[in-house]
Design a protein that fits this description.
- This protein is of the alpha/beta class.
- The chain is built from twelve helices and 19 strands.
- It starts with a strand and ends in a 6-residue tail after the last helix.
- The mean pLDDT is about 95.
């Protein structure tokens, strides 16, 4: 058996259609999906959800709540810290199952602990000299090239990440024509990846997800950290689009007294997540960006399964019956491949 786990970053579930994603739609019709999508962990940012994809853990367990984490003195990019707990890469390796990783966002290597895989690209999780998208992440064409360079298709377990839909959603918003056109381009790259597996299609289980949705930005600039200081309240704030995480801050009841805060939830003993009204972004934001994520409103994930292996209809049936969480995928991959994640 070969299992391929593909993340199309920020792909809006609503644009999984014959018009905009014909290659992915073919997988839907031959395999299966949940048209309502799956559910992201909170925050709905990229890095917490990728850490959950590979550990099967909630952020309170793997330690990545937003794209940056508290290191004891400051917030740092989570790729410098990595997830707590076991990962599908370490577990597969312990069972002698070959595994390989290619990601468009180089930071994901550290975020997911993917340096433990048999092969990973970009090497050491550093940006390399290849074609890049507008945010200087590897273009979809570069991802495909890397799939060939490290021979990911020969691995028993492959993990592939396409980043361009996230970039274009940020630039133009999730509903823009420019976004839909780029999604169609990414779908073509995805189709090329599928073709690489056709010689072994009967042994292949192909899982395709997104990590979050995005919402159009309508307002930005609320400085929660300054608002806390003005009331002499404690708390260190890390802004994450339409949400923010407050480290060692006040109770949720107090945070909800700010007009700009629509919701708040305790993530663990030290981290509280807050979010604003639809499309309202916390902290500084660039005028040229028109889409964002972070709040529970952007928690929908694409969930599609295809391939020729006998397990595909079984997984498709499960997908149709309930919305899977980001934490459900690692145990499922382990069950398919015969390895178990440690507690």
């Amino acid at each position: 058996m070969q299992v391929v786990f593909v993340v199309i970053d920020a792909l809006p579930n609503q644009w999984v259609t014959p018009e905009w994603t014909p290659n992915l739609w073919e997988l839907v019709t031959e395999g299966g999906w949940n048209p309502r999508g799956g559910k992201a962990v909170l925050s709905t940012a990229t890095y917490p959800n990728h850490a959950s994809f590979v550990t099967g853990r909630e952020p309170a367990s793997h330690g990545i709540f937003v794209n940056r984490v508290w290191d004891g003195s400051k917030f740092v990019i989570s790729s410098k810290v990595g997830p707590k707990g076991d990962t599908i890469f370490k577990a597969a390796g312990r069972s002698g199952i070959s595994n390989a990783v290619v990601v468009g966002d180089h930071n994901l290597i550290g975020v997911m602990g993917a340096e433990e895989a048999d092969a990973c690209w970009p090497p050491d999780g550093e940006r390399v000299d290849v074609a890049l998208d507008e945010f200087r992440y590897a273009a979809d064409s570069s991802v495909l090239d890397a799939v060939d360079t490290i021979d990911l298709v020969s691995a028993d377990l492959g993990f592939v990440h396409f980043n361009e839909p996230d970039t274009v959603c940020h630039l133009f918003g999730p509903d823009a024509e420019e976004t839909k056109e780029r999604i169609r381009s990414t779908d073509a790259a995805f189709g090329d990846l599928v073709e690489r597996y056709k010689p072994s299609w009967g042994d292949t289980v192909l899982i395709v997800v997104s990590d979050h949705d995005q919402e159009p930005v309508v307002e930005y600039g609320f400085d929660l950290a300054d608002a806390l200081r003005q009331r002499s309240l404690s708390g260190v704030v890390e802004n994450e689009g339409t949400c923010a995480v407050v480290f060692d801050g006040p109770a949720t009841e107090t945070l909800m007294t700010f007009d700009e805060v629509e919701g708040a939830i305790v993530l663990d003993a030290q981290h509280t997540l807050v979010w604003g009204k639809p499309g309202h972004v916390f902290g500084p934001w660039l005028d040229g960006l028109h889409g964002s994520h972070g709040s529970p409103r952007t928690s929908t994930q694409v969930t599609v399964v295809g391939g020729g292996h006998a397990q595909v209809p079984v997984i498709a049936s499960a997908l149709a019956k309930r919305r899977l969480n980001a934490t459900d995928w690692a145990p499922l991959v382990g069950e398919l491949m015969g390895f178990q994640l440690t507690e």
